[in-house]
Structure formats: structure tokens, C-alpha cells
Design a protein that fits this description.
Layout lengths: L1 E5 L2 H23 L2 E5 L6 H7 L9 E5 L1 E3 L10 H8 L9 E3 L7 H13 L5 E4 L22 E5 L2 H9 L12 E5 L1 H5 L3 E6 L5 H9 L17 E6 L9
Parallel strand pairs: 1-10, 2-3, 2-6, 3-5, 6-9, 9-10
Antiparallel strand pairs: 4-8, 7-8
Helix pairs in contact: 1-2
Length: 244
Amino acid sequence: MNIFTLENPIELGKAAGAAAAEIITKSINEKGKAHIILATGTSQFETIKQLVKEEIDWRKVIMFHLDEYIGMSINHPASFRKYLKERFIDQVPELAAAYLINGEADPEEERARLGDLIRQHPIDVALVGIGENGHLAFNDPPADFDTEEPYLLVDLDKQCREQQLGEGWFNNLEEVPLQAISMSIQQILKSDHIICSVPDGRKAQAVKNSLENEVSNRFPASILQQHDHCRFYLDSSSAALLSR
């Protein structure tokens, strides 16, 4: 695990996006294609903005989606499908394929469909973030560290839902869905490389818990300490509570 602290979210995004592009290009050069996972939310704004600027042969890249709310229309401002379509897919129209989570489909059928797909496509790099409650994807604490199912139907805890409200995606807490389809912890860890972008001081305690506490499902993102090729990209605010 490597930790990089940049001055602000823009510099963080530039560094994380460039690092992801380097891994993607290396995978294309060595294997003829690359498979990636993209997260969403405000933490990924600058990273994805930088990634789409990079010189990558997108015709050889296949994208998987990290999580989506149950019952969420793609037209809702908080839809992660909408987020990825506008910020990524529309910006790289030659993308080989994008496997998005349909929150309006039958949840069990959808997670089975996506699970079958991702088992056929080993992931080269996953771009992820950390929630204010330490969640990784929508695996809120106490997270399931053991299941080998690629995608799960999960309940969202109050702190997670309050974060989504606080970031401006919803008008009130009652609007925030109670459940989501999320990629599992073990599936994320199967990625050859993981780039974790975490800006903002409101994530500082979660960063400290994830990097300086023992690995525990009470701090889901702490599991990233065990990944051989994980890079954390922080800004001065999110790194403020680290002891070193």
C-alpha cells in the first residue's frame, strides 16, 4: 500500500487519474485490453475528469460499475448510472463496453447478471473511494469480508444515507434509498490494482480509521491495507488526522 498526499482535490484527481491511465495503458500493451471498475460520488469528480483527458485507446477498455441504488431511475440526479454516463461514458464514446448496474431491475437477477459478467473479465484497476462511515462501495460497517459473491444486495445505514444527503444528491433524508446493489469486498480485492481517491476533511476520520486501525469489518476500507497494489490519494484535509 502506498499513500500520496496532494495539496487539494484538483491535484489529487490529476495524480490519481494519471496513475490509473498508466495502469490501463500497460494492460492494453501487455494483454490487448483493460478492464476497469469506476466509483462515483463527489470524491471521484477530479479523478474521472483527469482520466478522460488521458491518451488511452478506449476501444480496448471495458468498464464495470461499483454500486447503484435500488429503484433509482437513470433520470434521477443521484443516479450513479447517470453520473457515469455524463462524466465518463459520453466523454469516451469509443469505450469497448460499459456494464452498468440497473437499479430498476429485479435486484437478485441484476446482481446475478453482473456477477456472471465480471467473472469473465479479471479487473486490472479499480478506482474507488471511502465513505464517511468507512464504507468501501456500499459495504457499510460491519461489512461482509468473506462472501465470494461479486455483487450484493445491501442495506444502507443512516450515516451513509446522511452523507448522500449532505453531498447534495437528495432534498431530504427520506428520499435517500434504503438499499443498493454493491460490488462485494472480495470482488474489489480481486482487482490487480486499486486506486483510492479520498478528498475532503469530512473523510479525515474515515481515512485514519482505514489506514491506522487494525483491519476490521467495522472499518470496511481498512481491508485495503492487505492489498499488494493499492494506492491512496489524499488531500491535505483528508490526511489531516494521520499520525504519520
